[in-house]
Amino acid sequence: SQNSNGYISKPKKVMVIGGDGYCGWPTSLHLSNKNYEVAIVDSLVRRLFDHQLGLDSLTPISSIQNRIHQWHSLTGKTMQLYIGNICDFEFLSEAFKSFEPDAVVHFGEQRSAPYSMIDRSRAVFTQHNNVIGTLNVLFAIKEFCEECHLVKLGTMGEYGTPNIDIEEGYITITHNGRTDTLPYPKQASSFYHLSKVHDSHNIAFTCKAWGLRATDLNQGVVYGVRTEETALHEELCNRFDYDGVFGTALNRFCVQAAVGHPLTVYGKGGQTRGYLDIRDTVQCVELAIANPAKHGEFRIFNQFTEQFSINKLAGLVTKAGEKLGLKVEALSVPNPRVEAEEHYYNAKHTKLIDLGLKPHLLSDSLLDSLLNFAIQFRDRVDHSQIMPNILWDVASRKPSGIEPRL
Amino acid sequence: SQNSNGYISKPKKVMVIGGDGYCGWPTSLHLSNKNYEVAIVDSLVRRLFDHQLGLDSLTPISSIQNRIHQWHSLTGKTMQLYIGNICDFEFLSEAFKSFEPDAVVHFGEQRSAPYSMIDRSRAVFTQHNNVIGTLNVLFAIKEFCEECHLVKLGTMGEYGTPNIDIEEGYITITHNGRTDTLPYPKQASSFYHLSKVHDSHNIAFTCKAWGLRATDLNQGVVYGVRTEETALHEELCNRFDYDGVFGTALNRFCVQAAVGHPLTVYGKGGQTRGYLDIRDTVQCVELAIANPAKHGEFRIFNQFTEQFSINKLAGLVTKAGEKLGLKVEALSVPNPRVEAEEHYYNAKHTKLIDLGLKPHLLSDSLLDSLLNFAIQFRDRVDHSQIMPNILWDVASRKPSGIEPRL
Ligand SMILES: NC(=O)c1ccc[n+]([C@@H]2O[C@H](COP(=O)([O-])OP(=O)(O)OC[C@H]3O[C@@H](n4cnc5c(N)ncnc54)[C@H](O)[C@@H]3O)[C@@H](O)[C@H]2O)c1
Ligand SMILES: NC(=O)c1ccc[n+]([C@@H]2O[C@H](COP(=O)([O-])OP(=O)(O)OC[C@H]3O[C@@H](n4cnc5c(N)ncnc54)[C@H](O)[C@@H]3O)[C@@H](O)[C@H]2O)c1
């Protein structure tokens, strides 16, 4: 039975690559809860980065085996688990052949911009891991299940900060009297963000040349930690990064407020980006899966719900913290990144709304609960990990710390 | 002594990566002839591809060691030689430290679109070899000679065939009442062409973040074989590819005409591209080196001199062949590629002219001499290598032949 997209009417089996991570784990739970059959593919390399850099999640997190076991105990639902590196095509092939997915959600990349700027070896690792991993996923789909819909996590950072409105993936340009709709120009600002740009170009080509179907979710900065499913049991708890390498803006501010550390505003703080609640990440991914791209279509959605500047976020956290009796101050620290600190920013994000996304906007109550969450775990905070210490323009030429293996 | 670009007044030492190849060898000779101090860096992997695929240059070519030796015998000029893979950073570092280049010309990539479409392993090899190799060059420049000007070979194929005029690297877009000048959108159509798009984005970032200076030469399809310097002695002879994997359009047609093989027009033959004479390749590279980019500047030149459709080239070769008494016919063969066969094409190419390029336009006399050249060597032609046999939409999932090592 096919729907108007020529697709089997409801995709049933979803492979979640990177399903042990911050976005991937709650998404796996959500999809399982919605009665998709879920298989997690993950090398667990993210846990290795923590060991190597001496970092840890704010929240204690269970092993992936225990997470899946606990979910089964609570709900009776099972999840397949394939532990391995998607850069290893033999491993990936076996996972595809045995699971036979209808859709693949691909979260499985090195996703920290600062990590990719530590040194040459990690810059190379990031681009190799992400670009070759994604190439392997494309070849596996072509080889083993050409009908399979790829839902790939990209980032709003691919666009940079152009002085014109940001569209969803494509822009119609009239030039010297002629018109065409072309891929939106990309201006990424770290080796990590660049790896996503490379992925997007590679995926676009395979949709055109091979007729693959793909959705690129250019995701904004995610905040929050709890979803309906992770809240069911402490063994299902999601990871929460607050350090200078993997922590993202709003999550970091909440932890900083909870432990009495000044909020680290990089430079002037006018940097504006799209943000979304982790509960909307899982919702968006499900919407993309339930409404697959057509054969040969490379669809791009900007996946965020609201724009904020860093100064605006710092102000919101300060106010919410004071309400809870915390003394919060924002502090401008020298910007470790090379980026515009005051700029125009207006990015479109209607396509997921059109598919039915009901956004969880950033509210006082969410900020309260995030802050309370941070307060609950504040004894676990390692203060030495809060300040940023990876500088873009140094991009230490020399190997720093232990090198991850390709 | 600095000139207006803040650059040492005349760059003296040029490292030519890929200096054993079709473009790299004549460029090395030309630069040496113009009294630059030249070092060739090459892994010779191109010669390995020939062995693995059972291919050979139309022209007999000497070893790189004999080429350099012969050049020294004829002119008294020396060239340094570093044999190694630029993906090996230890090797590349030693080459940079011992030679201390003022400019690096980077030809050293896997450059065949069909090769990159043979199978997964060669697609991955191509993107790894090209992207990681170029990342290493960027890190080496940053580490060992931040003043060094990178001249990187890109391709006109990065742009694809948009329905608007192609500008040189950047386009000014007015959108919803605002204006910005942004990287020209890229639509590459093979894993090889995509690797060049990835390189361009990576280089642009390092110019911005680290202040490197770089020129991206988006080269058209090169034809011809002799330059002033290669013609001096048979041991200096350049390679000439006519097979379906490495041969490029006009060169292939001349060999086909010489051996009485029908000219292989892919599909409708309306595919239009920019072309240039190999003598203009060496001229353009020297112009880029002699007029370096500024600190932090990422400069893009479209390096070609004339546009032709495949049908137009087939017509020119047919006419020239008949003049020499050859019986030439053009034959449409099923297009192995996924590409538009009839399309708008108008690409700008004024920046190198502004720097002083004096083009060698495609003329009857050049076609005569190319055809005579092909006739001279026609006994060396392997007829079984002429037809294209790598199909884009098959992109054989299975390893085909011997796999190159990463
Ligand atoms: N967190 C955010 O704010 C955010 C924002 C925009 C986009 N994204 C994107 O969403 C995706 C998920 O992000 P996240 O925050 O959950 O990251 P994460 O690091 O928490 O999770 C990524 C997971 O992928 C796995 N992985 C990495 N490389 C792998 C490989 N080669 N083989 C198998 N598994 C591999 C890791 O072990 C990890 O579990 C990433 O692609 C990221 O770029 C995240
Ligand atoms: N020939 C054309 O028509 C054409 C057109 C547009 C652009 N270009 C570009 O110009 C450059 C040169 O093209 P060409 O036709 O001379 O190709 P070629 O294959 O003849 O030469 C490339 C050389 O680079 C070397 N090389 C490849 N990978 C290497 C590595 N990792 N380390 C060290 N050496 C390595 C090869 O051994 C070879 O000698 C390429 O970057 C190509 O993409 C060529």
3D structure, described in words:
- The structure is a homodimer of 406-residue chains.
- Chain A is an alpha/beta fold.
- In chain A, 36% of the residues lie in helices and 18% in strands.
- Chain A is built from twelve helices and 14 strands.
- In chain A, the strands form four sheets. Chain A has a seven-stranded parallel β-sheet with strand order 3-2-1-4-5-8-12, sandwiched between helices.
- In chain A, a hairpin with a 2-residue loop joins strand 6 and strand 7.
- In chain A, helix 1 (24-33) crosses helix 9.
- The longest helix of chain A has 25 residues, at 120-144.
- Chain A is globular, with a radius of gyration of 20 Å.
- Chains A and B meet through helix 6, strand 6, strand 7 and helix 7 of A and helix 6, strand 6, strand 7 and helix 7 of B.
- The structure holds nicotinamide-adenine-dinucleotide (NAD) (2 copies).
- One nicotinamide-adenine-dinucleotide (NAD) binds next to helix 2, helix 6, strand 5 and strand 9 of chain B.
